[in-house]
Amino acid sequence: MLARPERFFADRFGLNAGTMERLLGSTLAGRVDHADLFLEYRISEELVLEEGSVKKAARHVSQGAGLRAQSGERTGYAHTDDLALPNLEEAARQARAIADRASTSAVVAVGGDGPPHDLYTLAEPPTSADLDRKLKLLGRMDAEARALDPRVRQVIATLGSEEVVVMIATPSGWTVGDVRPLTRLNVTVIVEDGAKREIGSFGGGGRVAFDFFLEQDRWKRFTGEAVRQALMKLDAVDAPAGEMTVVLGPGWPGILLHEAVGHGLEGDFNRKKTSAFSGRLGQSVASELVTVVDDGTIQNRRGSLNVDDEGVPTRRNVLIEKGVLRGYLQDRLNSRLMGMEVTGNGRRESYAHPPMPRMTNTFMLAGEDEPADIIRGVTKGLYAVNFGGGQVDITNGRFVFSASEAYLIEDGRVTRPVKGATLIGNGPEALTRVSRVGHDLMLDEGVGTCGKDGQSVPVGVGLPTIRIDRMTVGGTQV
After folding, report:
1. Cα(294)–Cα(291) distance, rounded to whole angstroms?
2. The domain that contains 212 carries what CATH number?
3. pLDDT, tens only, 144-182
4. Is the dihedral of CA 468, 474, 475, 476 positive or negative?
5. Does 224 lie in the same domain as 246?
6. What is the total count of domains within the chain?
């Protein structure tokens, strides 16, 4: 396990409190509204087993620093992969030159202070686990998938892990650090039955140790789910098309909530008034059954952080409460310009990227309905359990999502699996049509990665079983 961030960067690169104060204080202090230094050291590992053979075994180490200066709405950002002090001083000068202007903003961010959490301290980081144990597990997954059904033709098992040490410093001398483990295990299978060929994939993980996958035979469940999904598709019929009742299953279908609603609640879109939710705080934007939360403080979850990438402790943010819009997700820049609290949602892909408002773990709270009763109340509809890709227009909330696993609901029963189903709608409008919410809230298994403005960060999603009335389904049957 790597040392505490302060000791790590001091011992390895000579970047102690004195050198950082000199760097930030002499170049940026008093000349901009806000400035910070983001230091990062990353160890990452990827193992891929395909057709019983190791196709990839890679381990990478990267390091760097990003320096940011903000003045009004302008942000200067410079980064370097060389942590020598002269290079950092030059990066600071470049950042200030971009952001510098004659006057500064008088708006000050409110709140955001407090001690960081301890959400994922591990006895052994996933990158430190024995390589032979990891490869053996991938081999067991390959054998398990083939043993489950003779129609399994190809198996790809992947294990990715990383440990990231970060430290954030400001001109005032304030510093905070974090050591972030992350790992994900995934299996993809291809099945064949005559001329039919289908694919299934499943996985999970989080800020957990390697042994997480061995506990409760999680690896075996992941493998079984991938095989089940692929075989299910062999018997799928063409999806119907038209307006109908849609029931979303618990867990991963929360990705629709994340994309169609969550991004529209990020502060930058609302400051620029480009979101469908702009200017609607305190207004009803959803059914009174809907409460949406973004929570970066859940133990060991993929989207959780002790502190965000601006050093602000993460927290539980209620975004929509019983249908009423209560807040936006904020980083330091947008909270300052909007006169709102920072919420611990300033995130970046790496030291080479400036932070922006991003989600952590975003989900809808559970209701009181029995999930089986929700389905029994539907005469004709679609039950969507898993989703693949999708597209969303933040400005108006319009979305299109493809369902990778879905079933017909006929006379209150889940019947035939369907293929080619897409859900088409408007995020805010869809929330107003939520008519039933189950008590079975589930978070996803730990596989989510969110993209925005060219940056990718790990996230979590969640949902209970919900019923949405009058949603457009795209398919092939009319």
Report:
1. 10
2. 3.30.2290.10
3. 999 999 999 999 999 999 999 999 988 777 788 899 999
4. positive
5. no
6. 2
